[in-house]
C-alpha cells in the first residue's frame, strides 16, 4: 500500500503570505530533495506550525483531523535528526490500526529516499513475528506499530527502547476508543525519560489531556482545522467491492457510464501499468503514468488524453499532480486514498471550469473507516452504488448498437451501395433480408459477444459480504458454521469481550461476521468461530496473547452453553463490539 499524504489541500485556509516553503522550516537538504521528488512545494498548516518546534527539541500536542498532512509534520523532523550509525530504534510511532501503521511506515520510507541506510519497520498484529524479529536483529532506526504488538515485543524482550529519542502518538483519540489507554501508558513507562514526544489527536477529550499532562513536557499546542472540500458539481459515489472483483467491476462501470475521458487512480507505480494492460486487453485505449515515467513521455500521454486519442489514464497521486484536462468527466479511485487531501486532489481532476463531473471510489470491507474519514472531512456524503448488472450492461450495449445503426442509415450514399450487395445475396441464396442483417451483425461483432450472459462472481475462495464485496482470502468465510473454541483467559484475568474480539481479529485476520457467542468463565472463555478455520489461522491464533497471557486457542468438544442467558456478552446488540481488523484491545500485565 503506498502512502500519498499531500502536504496541502487545494482549499485549505492558509494565506500564501504567511506560509513558508519547506526550505524555510529548517529541514536538511536530503529531506528537501525527497520532498521535491514527490512534488511537494508548500507545507500545510499543521506542517508549517509543527516542524520548527520539533526541530527545536520541543514536545508537541497537535489537534488536527485525518488528512491534514500530519504524517509529514512529524516524519520530516524525525528523519532530519536521525543518526544512521545507531542501529537500535531511535523513533517509535504508535498507531491505532495496521492500515495506519503501514501508511506511516511507507511515508517515512518515501521521505527518507535520499538518506542512506535508514531502516523503518512496521510492527502490527497478523504479521509473523519472524519477519519482525529478523529486522530488529539487523537493526532499525524507526519502528511504526500498533500498541498491542509493540507491547508483546516488550514482554518478550525483543524490542529495545533504551536509546529511544522520539515518540509519536498518532490518532491518540482513536487508540483510546479502541481500549489502548493502559497499553500506551505501559509502553511509555518502558521508554527513556529524556525523549521528545509528539501527540496528535482529532479531538481533545479529558483522557488525551491527562496523557499530555503526564508525559509531555511544556508542549507546543497546535490546533489546525482542515477545510478540504470538493466541488458541488461533482457527483460522488462509492462501491463496496472485494479486491479480486475490482477489474471486473471497473469494466462494468466503463460499459454503463457515459464518460469522455477518465483517470483511474491506484496507490502503487507497479499497479498503474498492470491495470492499464488489463484495460487494453479489454479493448479500451488506456495508458499508465507514475513517478517513474519520464517528463517527455508524461507530456505525450497527457496530450493524447487531451486530443481524444486516449480515453483512460491510470495514474498515481504524484503523477497526476497538476493535471488539468477538460475532457476528464470521470475519476475512479480504484484504490481509495489513505488521506482526505489526496481524495480532494483526485476528485478535483474532474468537474473543471464549472462543468459537471463524476467520482467513483472502490471501497473494500476493510476500508470503511477511510470512507468515513473522507465523508467527515469533505462534509459531503458519498452515495453507495452497486456493481452494474448484466441487464444494465446489455441495455447499454443495445442502445449503442441502435445508435450505430441509426448513424449508418443516415449515410444514404453508402446505404445504396450495400442495398445492391444484400439484394444480390438474397436473390442467389434464397435467404430473407432479416437473416442477412443478423448475419452481418455477427460479422461486425467479431469474437466479442454483443450481450453478456453471466454475473460477476467472487473467486471460489470468497463469498460476498452482505450484498457486495468479500473479505480477504486469508479470512474465513462469512456465514460458515460456527464451532466453540476455548481460550485460556477468563474473569480472573479481567478479560472483556471486546479484548477477545480485538485480539483474535487482529492476529487472525477475522471480521465481526466471523464471531458468534462469547462466554467468559472464571479461568477460561469459550468463543464461537468458523468451524473451518484454516490451519495457518489456527497457528497464528494459538500464539496470541491477551493481557500478556497466551490464550492457547483450541477447539472445544463440548456444546456451547452460555452462562449469560439468551443474549451473548458481546455488545448487547447481537454483534461483537467494533468492526476494525486491527483491535488488539488488551490490557497490560495486572
UniProtKB/TrEMBL annotation:
Record protein name field: ATP-dependent RNA helicase DeaD
Location of the region described as Disordered in the Swiss-Prot/TrEMBL record: 454-491, 537-590
Gene responsible for this protein: deaD
Matching SMART domains: DEXDc, HELICc
Gene Ontology process terms (BP): cellular response to cold; ribosomal large subunit assembly; RNA catabolic process
EC nos: 3.6.4.13
Biased amino acid composition, Basic and acidic residues: 454-476
Family: Belongs to the DEAD box helicase family. DeaD/CsdA subfamily.
Keywords: ATP-binding, Cytoplasm, Helicase, Hydrolase, Nucleotide-binding, RNA-binding, Stress response
Function recorded in the entry: DEAD-box RNA helicase involved in various cellular processes at low temperature, including ribosome biogenesis, mRNA degradation and translation initiation.
UniProt enzyme class: hydrolase
InterPro entries: CsdA_RRM, DbpA/CsdA_RNA-bd_dom, DEAD/DEAH_box_helicase_dom, DEAD/DEAH_RhlB, DEAD_box_RNA_helicases, DeaD_dimer, DEAD_helicase_DeaD, Helicase_ATP-bd
Catalytic activity, as annotated: ATP + H2O = ADP + phosphate + H(+)
Organism encoding this protein: Microbacterium betulae
Residues annotated as domain Helicase ATP-binding: 51-222
Domain DEAD-box RNA helicase Q: 20-48
Residue span(s) of domain Helicase C-terminal: 246-394
Pfam families in alphabetical order: DbpA, DEAD, DeaD_dimer, Helicase_C
Organism superkingdom: Bacteria
UniProt GO cellular component terms: cytosol; ribosome
Gene Ontology MF annotations: ATP binding; hydrolase activity; RNA helicase activity; RNA strand annealing activity
Residue numbers covered by motif Q motif: 20-48
Localization in the cell: Cytoplasm
SUPFAM superfamilies (UniProt xref): P-loop containing nucleoside triphosphate hydrolases
Keyword Glycoprotein: no
Amino acid at each position: 500500500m503506498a502512502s500519498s499524504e499531500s502536504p496541502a489541500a487545494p482549499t485549505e485556509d492558509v494565506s500564501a503570505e504567511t506560509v513558508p516553503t519547506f526550505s524555510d522550516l529548517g529541514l536538511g537538504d536530503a529531506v528537501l530533495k525527497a520532498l521535491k521528488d514527490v512534488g511537494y512545494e508548500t507545507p500545510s498548516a499543521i506542517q508549517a506550525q509543527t516542524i520548527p518546534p520539533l526541530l527545536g527539541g520541543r514536545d508537541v500536542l497537535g489537534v488536527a483531523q485525518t488528512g491534514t498532512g500530519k504524517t509529514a509534520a512529524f516524519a520530516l523532523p524525525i528523519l532530519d535528526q536521525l543518526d544512521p550509525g545507531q542501529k537500535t530504534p531511535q523513533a517509535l510511532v504508535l498507531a491505532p490500526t495496521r492500515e495506519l501503521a503501514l501508511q506511516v511506515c511507507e511515508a517515512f520510507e518515501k521521505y527518507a529516499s535520499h538518506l542512506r541506510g535508514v531502516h523503518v519497520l512496521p510492527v502490527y498484529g497478523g504479521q509473523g513475528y519472524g519477519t519482525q524479529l529478523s529486522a530488529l536483529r539487523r537493526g532499525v532506526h524507526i519502528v511504526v506499530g500498533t500498541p498491542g504488538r509493540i507491547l508483546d515485543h516488550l514482554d518478550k524482550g525483543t524490542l529495545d527502547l533504551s536509546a529511544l529519542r522520539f515518540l509519536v502518538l498518532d490518532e491518540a483519540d482513536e487508540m483510546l476508543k479502541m481500549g489502548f489507554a493502559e497499553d500506551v501508558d505501559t509502553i511509555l513507562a518502558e521508554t527513556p525519560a529524556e525523549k521528545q514526544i509528539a501527540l496528535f489527536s482529532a479531538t481533545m477529550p479529558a483522557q488525551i489531556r491527562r496523557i499530555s499532562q503526564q508525559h509531555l513536557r511544556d508542549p507546543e499546542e497546535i490546533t489546525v482545522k482542515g477545510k478540504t472540500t470538493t466541488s458541488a458539481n461533482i457527483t460522488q459515489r462509492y462501491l463496496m467491492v472485494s479486491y479480486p472483483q475490482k477489474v471486473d467491476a471497473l469494466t462494468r462501470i466503463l460499459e454503463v457510464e457515459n464518460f469522455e475521458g477518465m483517470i483511474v487512480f491506484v496507490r502503487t507505480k507497479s499497479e498503474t501499468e498492470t491495470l492499464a494492460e488489463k484495460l487494453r486487453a479489454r479493448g479500451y485505449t488506456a495508458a499508465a503514468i507514475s513517478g517513474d515515467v519520464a517528463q517527455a513521455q508524461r507530456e505525450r500521454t497527457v496530450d493524447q488524453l487531451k486530443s481524444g486519442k486516449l480515453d483512460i489514464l491510470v495514474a498515481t497521486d504524484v503523477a497526476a499532480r497538476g493535471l488539468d484536462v477538460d475532457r476528464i468527466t470521470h475519476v475512479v479511485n480504484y484504490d481509495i486514498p489513505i488521506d482526505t487531501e489526496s481524495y480532494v486532489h483526485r476528485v478535483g481532476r474532474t468537474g473543471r471550469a464549472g462543468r459537471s463531473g463524476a467520482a467513483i471510489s472502490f471501497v473494500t470491507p476493510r476500508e470503511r473507516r477511510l470512507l468515513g474519514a473522507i465523508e467527515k472531512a469533505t462534509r459531503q456524503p458519498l452515495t453507495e452504488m452497486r456493481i452494474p448488472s448484466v441487464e444494465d450492461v446489455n441495455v447499454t450495449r443495445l442502445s449503442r448498437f441502435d445508435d450505430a445503426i441509426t448513424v449508418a442509415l443516415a449515410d444514404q450514399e453508402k446505404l445504396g451501395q450495400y442495398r445492391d450487395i444484400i439484394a444480390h445475396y438474397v436473390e442467389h441464396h434464397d435467404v430473407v433480408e432479416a437473416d442477412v442483417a443478423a448475419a452481418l451483425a455477427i460479422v461486425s461483432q467479431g469474437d466479442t459477444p454483443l450481450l453478456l450472459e453471466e454475473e460477476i462472481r467472487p473467486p471460489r475462495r470468497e463469498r460476498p459480504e452482505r450484498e457486495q464485496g468479500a473479505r480477504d482470502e486469508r479470512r474465513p468465510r462469512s456465514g460458515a458454521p460456527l464451532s466453540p473454541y476455548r481460550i485460556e483467559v477468563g474473569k480472573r484475568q479481567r478479560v472483556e469481550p471486546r479484548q477477545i474480539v480485538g485480539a483474535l481479529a487482529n492476529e487472525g485476520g477475522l471480521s465481526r461476521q466471523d464471531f458468534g457467542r462469547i462466554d467468559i468463565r472464571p479461568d477460561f472463555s469459550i468463543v464461537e468461530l468458523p468451524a473451518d478455520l484454516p490451519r495457518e489461522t489456527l497457528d497464528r491464533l494459538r500464539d496470541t496473547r491477551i493481557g500478556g497471557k497466551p490464550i492457547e486457542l483450541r477447539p472445544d468438544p463440548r456444546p456451547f452453553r452460555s452462562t449469560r442467558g439468551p443474549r451473548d456478552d458481546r455488545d448487547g446488540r447481537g454483534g461483537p463490539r467494533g468492526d476494525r481488523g486491527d483491535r488488539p484491545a488488551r490490557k497490560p500485565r495486572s
